[in-house]
């Protein structure tokens, strides 16, 4: 891996390079995505089936687009029962973590007859997108569906690309059943997002779409936002390791490569004050590349977006973490808990040498659907909050309103909104 001495200039160059990975930078795809969306919006099922045949080489119709119980049973016959057991143990941790995020409606009242509050209501129907293509991600199935189930969403519709044979990956299908998907549709890409956003004869319109996907999926989610809600526009995966001279270089190298193997646009960065650690990690990376199965992808990822950054001070290292705002942050230092409190921008934070990033991908419980491309500065991981909406509750008795009605009328008149003022004033006509 390249080792770079961190300066103001190199920091700016790296941040600029990282932003090139953002889906918002791929404007050349937007016209194609918009055409797909408009076609699905207008022609519904017919357009979805045409695009599925064109892109996924699978022939579907209204009778085959939705996964049947027989197909679910077949998936269970294929999947190793031990893996089903692992999925169930992962689910237990994920569910228990997200249960702690649940909020309740609340109300406050006063003696003179006011009541204010907030009413929480689960979304009615949610669409979950699960990627297909180069790899299958049953872990993403769990991370998307379980928070929605905990929140109380009434209906969860999942879409995922099928193979040429019209079948969904059996592990993905088993995970969907275990997690509680109500309906599963065999479609992917921008056409799946459009179908969920606008509805077709076979696929119902949803209130919100969640889940990661490729550039076409990301841009489609961006395009339909407003007609439906979305979780975020996800970019390629990324990991940043903050380490000092106490870190194990072999562990650090292995963790960096765990994200670099996702795709050529993934980013893996080490920030350290130790030149010695930097050199040892680079050597370990070279050794791993000789034996890992996805070394071609990893090499391209590291060539494009992999860095080992050496800083003069620990504070400078922490400041750089905040500037990058990584999706995954590992802190492998003398005092990881202390350093964690100094960091403001990160999607998920892993503390200590035994808390490697894949622990969060699969098993620990916190959600692995995280803000990318610097959006951890203002976005949060997927959570139960993403599947509820909040309504404000306001009640005033006449006595309570009489005490403040003149203030409201005065404020409204100051904005020249006389009808607003009148709406309050009519309730006190004839009174001094």
From TrEMBL:
Its EC number is 1.1.1.23. Zn(2+) binds at residues 259, 262, 361, 420. The keyword NAD applies. PROSITE patterns: HISOL_DEHYDROGENASE. Its cofactor is Zn(2+). NAD(+) binds at residues 129, 191, 214. It catalyses: L-histidinol + 2 NAD(+) + H2O = L-histidine + 2 NADH + 3 H(+). The active site is at 327 (proton acceptor), 328 (proton acceptor). Pfam families: Histidinol_dh. SUPFAM superfamilies: ALDH-like (SSF53720). Keywords: Amino-acid biosynthesis, Histidine biosynthesis, Metal-binding, NAD, Oxidoreductase, Zinc. Binds 1 zinc ion per subunit. Pathway: Amino-acid biosynthesis; L-histidine biosynthesis; L-histidine from 5-phospho-alpha-D-ribose 1-diphosphate: step 9/9. Substrate binds at residues 237, 259, 262, 328, 361, 415, 420. InterPro entries: Ald_DH/histidinol_DH, Histidinol_DH_CS, Histidinol_DH_monofunct, Hstdl_DH. GO terms for molecular function: histidinol dehydrogenase activity. Catalyzes the sequential NAD-dependent oxidations of L-histidinol to L-histidinaldehyde and then to L-histidine. PANTHER family: HISTIDINE BIOSYNTHESIS TRIFUNCTIONAL PROTEIN, HISTIDINOL DEHYDROGENASE HDH. Belongs to the histidinol dehydrogenase family. This is Histidinol dehydrogenase. It comes from Fusicatenibacter saccharivorans.
């Amino acid at each position: 891996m390249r080792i770079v001495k961190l300066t103001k200039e190199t920091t700016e160059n790296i941040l600029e390079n990282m932003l090139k990975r953002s889906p918002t930078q791929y404007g050349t795809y937007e016209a194609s995505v918009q055409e797909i969306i408009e076609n699905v919006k207008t022609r519904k099922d017919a357009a979805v089936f045409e695009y599925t045949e064109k892109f996924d080489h699978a022939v579907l119709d209204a009778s085959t687009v939705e996964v049947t119980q027989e197909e679910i049973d077949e998936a269970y016959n294929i999947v190793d029962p031990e893996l089903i057991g692992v999925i169930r143990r992962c689910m237990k941790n994920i569910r228990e973590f997200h249960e702690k995020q649940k909020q309740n409606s609340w109300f406050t009242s006063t003696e003179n007859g006011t009541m204010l509050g907030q009413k929480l209501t689960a979304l009615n129907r949610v669409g979950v997108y699960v990627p297909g293509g180069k790899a299958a991600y049953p872990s993403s199935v769990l991370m998307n569906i379980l928070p929605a189930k905990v929140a109380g969403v009434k209906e969860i519709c999942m879409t995922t690309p099928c193979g040429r044979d019209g079948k969904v990956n059996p592990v993905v299908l088993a995970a969907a059943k275990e997690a509680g998907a109500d309906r599963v549709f065999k479609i992917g890409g921008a056409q799946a997002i459009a179908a969920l956003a606008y509805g077709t004869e076979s696929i119902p319109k949803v209130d919100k779409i969640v889940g990661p996907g490729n550039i076409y999926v990301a841009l489609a989610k961006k395009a339909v936002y407003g007609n439906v809600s979305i979780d975020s526009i996800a970019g390629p995966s990324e990991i940043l390791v903050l380490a000092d001279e106490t870190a194990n270089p072999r562990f650090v190298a292995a963790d960096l490569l765990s994200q670099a193997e996702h795709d050529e646009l993934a980013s893996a960065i080490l920030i350290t004050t130790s030149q010695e650690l930097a050199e040892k990690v680079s050597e370990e990376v070279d050794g791993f590349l000789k034996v890992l199965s996805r070394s071609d992808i990893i090499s391209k990822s590291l060539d494009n977006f992999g860095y080992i950054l050496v800083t003069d001070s620990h504070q400078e290292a922490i400041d750089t973490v905040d500037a990058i705002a990584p999706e995954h942050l590992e802190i492998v230092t003398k005092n990881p808990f202390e350093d964690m409190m100094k960091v403001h921008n990160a999607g998920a934070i892993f503390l200590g040498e035994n808390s490697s990033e894949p622990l969060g991908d699969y098993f620990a419980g916190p959600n692995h659907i995280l803000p990318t491309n610097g959006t951890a500065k203002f976005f949060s991981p997927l959570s139960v909050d993403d599947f509820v909406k909040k309504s404000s509750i306001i009640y005033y008795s006449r006595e309570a309103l009489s005490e403040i009605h003149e203030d409201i009328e005065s404020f409204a008149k100051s904005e020249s909104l006389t009808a607003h003022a009148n709406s309050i004033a009519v309730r006190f006509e004839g009174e001094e």
